[in-house]
Amino acid sequence: xxxxxxxxxxxxxxxxxxxxxxxxxxxxRISYIGKIEPGKSTVNFRLVLPNTSAPAETLKLKGLKxxxxxxxxxxxxxSGVVT
Length: 83
Known about the structure:
mainly beta
């Protein structure tokens, strides 16, 4: 495998009563990871929820997946220099 860069994290977050903590009608990105090592890795990411959410220690994360790029730049990105 290859390292992944600029990975978006997708998944579902539920409270202690299995109610969605975020809008589940859309497949939304819940966070971002700058770099993921190949193979099985432990990663950290920041999760920001509205103040109306349940306490963090009661939340359940389900179906987490990351989607990134093998290169350091996103497709279509460049240096910004026009030649």
